[in-house]
Amino acid sequence: MNCNPIPEREDWFITDRKPTICPRCKKKEVKKSVFGMPSREDYYEAKYHFQGCIPDFPKPRTWGCCNCDAAFYKDTPRNRAALGGLTPRQWPKD
Ligand SMILES: [Zn+2]
Q1: Rounded to whole angstroms, what are the CA distances from 61 to 64, 82, 93, 94?
Q2: Within a domain: residue 15?
Q3: Is residue 94 part of a domain?
């Protein structure tokens, strides 16, 4: 897995798949992030990370840590473009 921190934001990461363990707090609390109000079922199942009503800027996160609220963005050309200046121009080679 490639999980790269975004230098300007210590709690933001760009990653090619969902991290099992949060690289920030080391807990297994990384879940698919949903925006807005969850349904009651979803809420009680605790399957998701909830962003609440204020979306992340410039783009909603793909996954979030329920423990420390770190944000994870899927590594796609679109997300890289959306994150623009927040990501370094060159990522290390795989
Ligand atoms: Zn965390």
Answers
A1: 7, 11, 24, 23
A2: yes
A3: no
